[in-house]
Structures are given as structure tokens and as C-alpha cells.
Write a structure and sequence with these properties.
Largest sheet: 3 strands, antiparallel
Helix content: 55-70%
Strand order of the largest sheet: 3-4-5
Shape: globular
Number of strands: 7
Distance between the termini: 16 Å
Radius of gyration: 21 Å
Structural class: mainly alpha
Order of helices and strands: HHHHHEEHEHHEEHHEE
Strand content: 5-15%
Number of helices: 10
């Protein structure tokens, strides 16, 4: 059984009450679609809460307040994180991954702001150099989504590549985020490597009663697209700005989708070391007859 939180159990229980024991057809499809949306929203709760605070601070935070807006955002991010754990909306196991995302992201932020890739308003005291501490929570929100979606959708994978190879690829991607400022940018080579390594991998996910499948590379691209949309909201809110936006905000270049796509690989590799990717097998005795087969986990020692 998956280690669901109380909220996640209520989502499934509510769907079961509405769907009934033998419902099918259009009603069943609508329930699956609704539960999918609810679970996706639930998986995004940390990032969505932080983005809402960033947007609200841009629209309503008082000018000249004694507490700098960046410091307010940092405090708000810490409060959100504490509430997530205290209310058991986030497990301690997930928190370990999120802290790792925070550290990986903050190191990148320190370098990128130093070379001028983007910038923050120089205000507040809760920062390291030019980087306000709330920035690390934005990376942590990606980690929060990844570990949560892995659990609530009970993800399994066909032909997932060996983890040690994916770790080497993730390390190369991370290094390239730094090294391309000094030597040739290898992102296109890395994209080809992602296609070769993950191209045959298929992700299985359970919404409510039915399992679906999707090419894993497509899942990477869809998540990267939603992060890019969130990035546009954040830059419009002046959480940070790219050099081309300093004289007036405009939509973030679609080229950033490539960066977010590659970041997804790092994210997946980090999560895979906590939740080991496992294949899906048909439960014994359930493969015959007209009824849809039930699925069971092939559990392995971590």
C-alpha cells in the first residue's frame, strides 16, 4: 500500500463514494478526470501556496514597510514548510528530498546571480550575497511536487534506465548549468542523451480505479511547461528578473523550457534515490477473463 496522508485518503474515499461499486461509462470517466485534477492540485500545494504569496506580495505588500518584501517572502516560505510538516501534509521522508532540492537550488542561485543570468531586488537581510533565502524554496517546491506526485499517482515505470547512469547524466546537466558560461554549452548533447536514455521508458500512473500510461519524456516536457508558466507569473511579480526584463516585463523566452526540461532530469534522479522506480506487474490470477486486470506492485528492497 502507498503511504498516503489523511488528505490523500479522503480524496480516494470521496471518489469511491461518488462513483459507487459498479459505475462505468461517462460518469466513471468524469470521476477519473476530476480526481486527476484534484490530485495534481494537491501535489502542487507547496509551490502553489508560495506562488500565491509571491503574487499577493507584488500586488498588496505596502511600500516602505519596515520588513523588506524579500524577507517577508522568506518568512512566509518557512511558515508554509513548517505547516506542511506539522499538519502531516508532508512526510519527513519527503522533507529530506525537499531540503536537498533547496541546497542544490541555492548553490545554483549564488552562481547565476553572480554571473548576471538573473537578479533580485537588493533588499532585506535574509539573504546570502545577492540571493534572498526564499529563492531556495522555489526549487524546493519542485521537489515537493515530484515526491508527492510519485506517491499519490502510485507511479511505476517500464524500462527505467539504471539509476547509476541517470545519476551521471544528472551530474553532467548540473555541471553544464555552470560550465556553459566558460566553455561550450552542451545542452543539446545532453538533450540527445536524455532522449536515448529515457526514450523507451513508459510511466504508469493510477488516478482512481484505472491505470494509464504515458511516455516519460512527455511527462518531463509537460511538467517543464507548467514550471515555465509559473516562472512567468513569478517574474511578472518581480520575484526575480532576467536582464532583458529590467526595462519592462515580457514573457520569459520559450528557450527556458529547455533549461526546465533538463532540470526535470535532476529532479527525477533525486527523487528516484528515495522512491526507487519499479515496474508494474499483473497480480497473479487476475490476467484472465473479461474483467480489467488488477495491478500489483513488484516491491524490491531499497
Amino acid at each position: 500500500m502507498r503511504d498516503l496522508t489523511a488528505v490523500e485518503e479522503r480524496i480516494d474515499a470521496g471518489a469511491a463514494r461518488f462513483l459507487g461499486p459498479a459505475a462505468g461509462g461517462l460518469r466513471s470517466g468524469l470521476v477519473e478526470f476530476t480526481v486527476f485534477g484534484i490530485k495534481q492540485a494537491w501535489a502542487c500545494i507547496f509551490g502553489a501556496s508560495l506562488l500565491a504569496v509571491i503574487l499577493g506580495a507584488h500586488l498588496w505588500y505596502p511600500a516602505g514597510a519596515a520588513l523588506a518584501r524579500n524577507d517577508f517572502l522568506t518568512i512566509a516560505a518557512v511558515v508554509i514548510q513548517i505547516l506542511m510538516v506539522a499538519t502531516k501534509l508532508e512526510t519527513v521522508r519527503e522533507l529530506r528530498v525537499i531540503v536537498l532540492f533547496h541546497l542544490v537550488g541555492t548553490v545554483m542561485e549564488l552562481f547565476k546571480t553572480d554571473v548576471g543570468s538573473w537578479s533580485y531586488e537588493a533588499e532585506g537581510v535574509l539573504r546570502v550575497g545577492a540571493v534572498p533565502l526564499f529563492s531556495g524554496f522555489m526549487y524546493a517546491s519542485v521537489g515537493s511536487y515530484m515526491v508527492r506526485v510519485y506517491r499519490v499517482f502510485d507511479l511505476h515505470f517500464d524500462r527505467y534506465p539504471p539509476r547509476w547512469i541517470t545519476a551521471i547524466l544528472a551530474a553532467a546537466i548540473y555541471v553544464n548549468f555552470f560550465s556553459h558560461h566558460f566553455i561550450v554549452d552542451a545542452r543539446w548533447v545532453l538533450l540527445i542523451a536524455v532522449g536515448v536514455l529515457y526514450g523507451r521508458c513508459v510511466m504508469h500512473y493510477r488516478v482512481f480505479r484505472h491505470r494509464f500510461r504515458m511516455p516519460l519524456v512527455l511527462a518531463f516536457l509537460l511538467v517543464a511547461l507548467f514550471i515555465w508558466i509559473a516562472e512567468n507569473i513569478a517574474t511578472w511579480s518581480h520575484a526575480w528578473l532576467y536582464p532583458s526584463q529590467l526595462d519592462g516585463w515580457h514573457i520569459v523566452s520559450a528557450e527556458k523550457l529547455v533549461s526546465w526540461f533538463l532540470l526535470m532530469i535532476i529532479s527525477v534522479v533525486l527523487v528516484a534515490w528515495v522512491y526507487k522506480p519499479t515496474p508494474l506487474v499483473i497480480a497473479a490470477g487476475q490476467g484472465s477473463g473479461r474483467a480489467a486486470p488488477r495491478w500489483a506492485d513488484r516491491r524490491r528492497a531499497f
